[in-house]
């Protein structure tokens, strides 16, 4: 039955019965719009009618059964351990229609994808690694709290009011926690989902490449690797190879932060000499 439902998303959606705009949950939280349906939950933008505050409401999907409820509870537990202005705070939990719901802060802003494709912003090597350093400052706090995010993709890194925020802790877990990974899973999935800081660095390696490609102008139609296409300093190239686990990877966020700071200082010095 589960496989049948997974192969037929329209049937799954009918069974999951997402909330409609305007519905009030728990006598307090009004649904404004659906933000998206993930593997185990449905996210909504909502409003706390008691305070007028905008919130995100997550509902465990009925079709995922106990797994969906367990993962929503894990996300709630993770957010309870984190207290940081650049991370959404856990707000409330409740049961509605037999399904658990999690309420957290709504963080509005732009992704780098919005900036690049919507505003035409491009990132030089220096600008890309400066932004990475801002993200790593938040990641350091997450890791120091014993948590690995495991989903540091472009949609989950938000730029607002001159600072970055990290959202969507739906896949986050405690370091070393047993997770649903198998030996026959694709390598990409295993690298991104490992319950170790390396998985966050791997994801941020791809995030940084996305920034760097914003300034790339192809000179031929031949398909090449990022190392061939991007004009990077040797240190930036070496750091990305470690983040992407092509070479011996970083094991601790402080190692990566130290290398990023050194790269930025060396680039600043080189620029000063040119001037």
Model description:
Its EC number is 2.7.11.1. It holds the Pfam family Pkinase. This is non-specific serine/threonine protein kinase. Keywords: ATP-binding, Kinase, Nucleotide-binding, Transferase. Belongs to the protein kinase superfamily. NEK Ser/Thr protein kinase family. NIMA subfamily. With 275 residues, the protein is α+β, with helices and mostly antiparallel strands. The chain has 2 domains: 91 residues, Phosphorylase Kinase, domain 1 (2-Layer Sandwich), CATH 3.30.200; 163 residues, Transferase(Phosphotransferase) domain 1 (Transferase(Phosphotransferase), domain 1), CATH 1.10.510. It is 43% helix and 19% strand. The protein contains 10 helices and 10 strands. The chain has a 6-stranded antiparallel β-sheet, covered by helices on one side. The protein has a two-stranded antiparallel sheet with strand order 7-10. A two-stranded antiparallel ribbon has the order 8-9. Strand 2 and strand 3 form a beta hairpin. Helix 5 packs antiparallel against helix 10, helix 6 packs across helix 7 and helix 9 packs antiparallel against helix 10. 29% of the residues are buried.
């Amino acid at each position: 039955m589960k496989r049948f439902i997974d192969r037929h998303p329209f049937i799954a959606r009918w069974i999951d019965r997402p909330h409609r705009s305007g519905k009030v949950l728990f006598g307090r939280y009004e649904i404004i719009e659906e933000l998206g349906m993930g593997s185990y939950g449905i996210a909504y933008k909502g409003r706390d009618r008691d305070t007028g505050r905008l919130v995100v409401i997550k509902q465990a999907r009925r079709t995922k059964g106990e797994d969906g409820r367990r993962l929503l509870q894990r996300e709630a537990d993770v957010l309870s351990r984190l207290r940081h202005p650049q991370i959404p705070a856990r707000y409330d939990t409740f049961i509605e229609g037999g399904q658990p719901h999690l309420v957290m802060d709504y963080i509005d802003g732009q992704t780098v994808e919005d900036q690049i494709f919507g505003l035409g912003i491009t990132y030089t090597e220096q600008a890309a690694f400066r932004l990475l350093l801002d993200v790593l400052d938040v990641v350091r706090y997450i890791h120091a709290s014993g948590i690995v995010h495991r989903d540091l993709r472009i949609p989950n890194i938000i730029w607002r009011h001159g600072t970055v925020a990290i959202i969507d802790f739906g896949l986050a877990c405690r370091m070393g926690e047993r997770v649903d990974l198998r030996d026959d899973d694709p390598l990409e999935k295993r690298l991104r989902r490992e319950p170790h800081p390396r998985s966050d660095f791997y994801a941020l390696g791809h995030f940084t490449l996305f920034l760097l490609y914003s300034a790339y102008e192809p000179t031929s139609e031949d398909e090449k690797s990022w190392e061939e296409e991007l004009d990077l300093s040797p240190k930036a190239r070496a750091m990305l190879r470690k983040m992407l686990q092509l070479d011996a990877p970083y094991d601790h966020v402080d190692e990566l932060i130290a290398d990023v700071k050194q790269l930025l200082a060396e680039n600043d010095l080189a620029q000063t000499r040119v001037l």
